[in-house]
Every structure is written in structure tokens, then in C-alpha cells.
Amino acid sequence: MKHTGKLIALLPAAALAACATTSANEPGTPDAENGETAMCDPAAAQSYVGQKATAQIGEQILDATGARQLRWGPPRAAFTMDFRQDRVNVMYDDAMIITQITCG
């Protein structure tokens, strides 16, 4: 019974670890191909707000923003608060319509 309390105490940490994302380069480190640091520019993708969220649109948003990583934001989802300057966040509603595009 003593070990049950320790196990329960570790569950939140395990759940957070499952939310972690990985990338070839950490934020702020030079891109392996050209030595430049990847930065996301959300202004370049605002024209996609109101469009249907698809894999093809996701690729176009990545290209437009200059981000290396895309994170989809389904309705009512919880997200980690870690900031990544090379990640674009695309939020959408129940109808799969993009409602917001941010970086971080």
C-alpha cells in the first residue's frame, strides 16, 4: 500500500512527458542545413484563417511562416506552455476551420 502513493505521485510527471515534442534542432539553435536560426512569422499565414484544416494547408502554413514544426490545436485541447520560436500553432474549431495561427 505504501508504494501506491509513490506511483500516484509520479503519474502527473509521466503525463506531461507524453506531451513533449522532439525536433532535430532545439529552438534557437542553428539549422543544420544553412546555419541560420529558424524563426516563425505568424503574420505571413493569417490568410489561412477561415480555411479548412488539412495536411496540405498545414504544409503551406509551415512554408509561409518559416517554422520547422507545426502543432495542430483542436477545440478544447490542453497544450504545454513551452515556447518554441520555430513552431507554428494552428487552432481550429469543431468544423475543422482554422480560427487562429500563432507562433511559439
From TrEMBL:
Name the UniProt record assigns to this protein: Peptidase inhibitor I78
Pfam families assigned to the protein according to its UniProt record, in alphabetical order: Inhibitor_I78
Keyword Signal: yes
Keyword Signal: yes
Domain of life (superkingdom): Bacteria
Record organism: Pelagerythrobacter aerophilus
Signal peptide: 1-24
Keyword field: Signal
PROSITE patterns: PROKAR_LIPOPROTEIN
